[in-house]
Amino acid sequence: MPQFLGIDASTQSISGIVIDTDAGSIVLDESINFGSDLPQYNAPTGVLDNPDPLVKHSNPLMWVEALEQLFGRCRSNGFDWSAIRGIGGSGQQHGTVYLNTSLADTAAWSPSVSLADQVRPMLSRATSPIWMDSSTSAECDEIAAAAGGNDIVVQTTGSIAIERFSGPQIRRFWKTAPAAYEMTARIHLVSSFMASLLSGVDAPIDPGDGAGMNLLNLTSSEWDSAMLEATAPGLADRLPPVRSSSAQVGEMKPYFCDKYGFNSGTPVIAWSGDNPNSLVGMGAVSPGVAVISLGTSDTFFAAMGRPTTDPNGYGHVFGNPAGGFMSLICFKNGSLTRDEVRNRFSLSWDNFSDAILTGTAPGNNGNLMLPYFESEITPRILNPSVRLFGEPAFMEWQDANAAARAVVEAQALTMRLHSEWIDERPRHILVTGGASRNPGIRQVIADVFGAELQCLNVANSAALGAALRAAHAGNDIEWEALFDVFAAPDRDIAVRPNPDAAAVYDGMTPIFRDKVAALQE
Ligand code: XUL
Fold first, then answer.
1. Cis peptide bond N-terminal to 379, omega within 30
2. Fewer CB atoms < 10 Å away: N or C end of the chain?
C-alpha cells in the first residue's frame, strides 16, 4: 500500500497528511499548533512579539521542534511511518532562515539529542522574518531603483519589489546586521529549510516558492544576476540552487529513520510554497478555475495560460508546480480578522454563519467595514485602521449580525476588486481553508463574485497538494488520476450565487473602493 506524506509548515501550525494511493484515501491528518503545543516559544499565532508593528518574525527552532512533535505524536498513536514511499512539503511563503553553515556540511545528527538543539548553533540569525512583515519599504525602493525601476522588477520576477518578499528582507538584514550577514553561508526559504532538515542536503528552491523572493528570473527559472546585485553583496553564493518542483532532493536522513521508523531511502521531493501546493491540492493546475484560500492570509490564485502581471502591482506571478505559471493575490487580514469580530461578540462559528445568513441581507443595509486590524498587503495599508460606516448600532459595535456580514463582505469585495487584472475569468471558484467550512462565509463569496462556489472535503489543501506532488514525482501516477480521487469537489456543498445580490454588489464595489482609497491617502 504506497503511502505519501505531505507536510505543511504554515504560520500557525505544522500539519501532515498521508494519502494511500491504492486505497484512494487519506490515512493520516494531524497538526501541531504553535500556540497550544509549543507555548514555550511565546508565539500563540506563530509570530513573535515585537514593539514595531511592522516587524513580524518567527523562531525557526519552533518549526523544527513542531516537525519532531508531528512525527513523534503520530508514532505514539500507532502510525507506521515505514509505509511512506515519498515525502513532499509546503512552507509559508517568503520567510527566510539564515545559517552559518550549509546543511549539507552537517555530520550525522545524533538521535539522542533533539533536532532543535542540533540546529540552534547553525543559525546565523536567531529569528526568521515571515510573510506578515512589512518593515522593508526603504529596501523595496532601493532594490527597484538599483534594478532600473519596478517595471523591470515586475517583468523580470513577476512582482514589483514588495515588503514581505525575501529579497527586500535579505537586504534589510545585510543593512542592519552586516557582520551576521557576513557569517551567513546559506539563506533558505521555509520550504527549502524544512526539505534540507529532512534530507540532510542543501535542498533547492522550486520556481513556485522562488518567485516569491524578487530574485528569480521567471523566464529562465534561474536566479537573476541583476536582481541579486540590486539586493545584497555576495548573495549568489548564499542561495541554494533552483530546481523543478518535482525534483527529488534527497532521501530521508538516518536521524528520522532511526528515531521515528521511516524507511531508509525514502525520497524527499522539493518543497514548495503553500499557495503553489494548494493549487495542486485543489486540482486547479490548469486555467479556468480560481481558488480562494481562507487561512491566516486569504489568497486568490489561479493557473495562468500566460504570465500576465498586475498593473497595480499587488498581484504576483509564481511558478505552477505542475508546469507553467500561476497568479496570486494575498490579503493579510484573513482568519485572525474574522476571529477579532467573532470574539468581540462571543459568537461561535455557527452563530457567525447564522448572523450572516438569517440576520442580514446582501449589502448589509448599507453597513460597511474597512477591517484593517493589521497592516494590509492588498490594498497597501501600513497604518492599520478599522472603520465602520452605516447605522448607529453598527458603528458603535452593538450589532453582531451586521458586524459578521460586514467583515466578510469587505474581504470578498477586496478580492473581487483586486483580481480583475487576471485574464482568465473563472468558470467557477474553489474554496479551501478553515473558513471555507462556514456556510455564511461561502454564500457571501459566491454572491460577491456572482459565481458558483465548490468546496473540497479536505480543509488543508497545501498539505494535500504536497502529498499529491510526492505521489506524482517519479511514480508514474498522472495528475488527473490523483485529482479524480483526492481533489473531487464535494457536490453536496456547491453554493450558487443569489441572483438578486449581483446588482447590490455592483453598486457597493465602487463605494468600498473609494473608502479604501481615502484610508490610503
Ligand atoms: C503569499 C503570502 C501568504 C503566505 C501565507 O504571497 O504571503 O499567503 O504564503 O503562508
1. yes
2. C
Q: What are 97's three cell numbers? A: 532562515
**CA 2 and chain centroid, separation:** 28
The set of cell numbers assigned to 273 is: 510554497
345 Cα: distance to centroid of ligand 1 (angstroms): 28
Residue 230 has pLDDT above 80, yes or no: yes
Give the atom of ligand 1 at the shortest distance from the alpha carbon of 274: 9
Ligand 1 centroid distance, CA of 93 (Å)? 5
As given in the structure block, the three cell numbers for residue 53 are: 508593528
CB of 212 closer than 6 angstroms to any ligand 1 atom: yes
Residue 393's pLDDT is 98
Q: Which amino acid is at 63?
A: W
Angstrom distance (rounded) from CA 10 to CA 295 = 10
Average pLDDT estimate for 58-69: 98
Phi and psi angles of residue 423, each rounded to the nearest 5 degrees, phi first = -55, -55
Give the count of alpha carbons within 13 A of 43, CB side only.
Answer: 22
Q: From the CA of 10, how far away is ligand 1's center (Å)? A: 9
Contact call for residues 440 and 408 (beta carbons, < 8 A): yes
Inter-axis angle of helices 400-418 and 335-344, nearest 10: 170
- The beta strands (E) that lie in 264-338 are given as 267-269, 272-273, 289-294, 298-304, 316-319, 325-331
Q: Are 3 and 74 in contact (CB under 8 A)?
A: no
Side chain identity, residue 141: D
Is pLDDT above 70 for 272? Answer: yes
Residue to mutate (ligand 1; options 134, 296, 297; most atoms within 8 A of CB):
297
CA distances, 519 to each of 31, 44, 384, 387, 389 (Å): 38, 30, 10, 9, 13
DSSP codes joined into one string, 93-159: SS-EEEESS-GGG--PPPTTS-HHHHHGGGBSSSSEE-TT----HHHHHHHHHHHT-HHHHHHHHSS
The band of 5, judged by pLDDT with boundaries at 50, 70 and 90, is very high
Contact 322, 281 (CB under 8 A): no
